[in-house]
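Supplementary Note 3. Input sequence used for the single-chain structure prediction.
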Amino acid sequence: MLSILLPLLIATTYHTIEIDGDISDFAADELIIDDSDNDSRWGTLNEIYGIYFTWDAENLYIGADYIVQNNALLILLDIGDAEGDYNINDLDWYPRNFSFRGMKPRVLVAIWNSEQWTSCVRKIVSNGQTEPINGATIVVDTSAGGVRNGIEASIPINELFENGQLTPGSCVKLVALIAGGDHATGGDAAPDNELIGTPNVISRFAVVELDANADGLLDADVSPNEVTEIVEVPHVNFEVTDFTIEPRVAAQKGDSVHISFKVSDNADGYLRIYDENGRKIREFWFSLGADEEFSVGFETDGLQPGIYFVEVNTGNYVAKKAFAIVAGGRIRLFNEPHPKISSKRRAIR
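The predicted structure, written as discrete structure tokens, is reproduced below.
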């Protein structure tokens, strides 16, 4: 839904936005995601209305037209550098229970309610760690008295791409979410996604073409809306097969739990074990060929009784199973990682 504050202007890049929270700085053709005003599963007080995006030679600019009540607004960007994480539930800042199929968030813009002091623009580094992006700014506008809010953010190109040089043909993938507190799932997404299951799997997002002429620079004289496509990544003909957990109920202190699976095609990804509160217990990275098996085991010493979840995530495919522990002790890995795990990923975190 187009913000009532937004004049019907046409602007092409390069367009510099004054970061003051007033989204009327953005033009109509910089609205790249026009979201319904009544599609949130949490009601009309938790809605994303629209997401705006543009750039000049030095910065990317993001705007959001939204309202939240005791929830968070998150805007996530995949900048195409293969870094970041397919699952953001273990971040050290705004962890939320979302997995992503087809995009790998690298940049996180987030705010709780419309409280300026809770906001920041951060880069997802590794192992759940995030760090502030130097020179990035974010400002919230609450002049509408909480009826409807706006935020604007700027991100320096030099902080995203080395020396401001893009990989020729670069695109940015972007999605906005309204989510609850730490480790919670979502109530609204722009563009629309089915926010069901745990974690919520995000498979629909905006793809903005930044460098159509492949010169390694942000394109000038383009309309952001015209170079944006809403893309959905469906479940592919890819399977995690022979996915087993033995035993499914560990009934004695120090029981050994074995997890194994195969993939139907070449795949890189991770296996994570969570407790029922979404906290990560263990993470194992893998690189497998078609029909190749990954197998790992650990002892249950140190784990509290309860339900635990195992997630296999390859970026465009997620498989999950659960097991139970009824007695505890210390976790101890008792076998070597899969021989195809690279030395870079060999460490178990």
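DSSP finds one helix and 23 strands in the chain. The longest strand covers residues 47-55.
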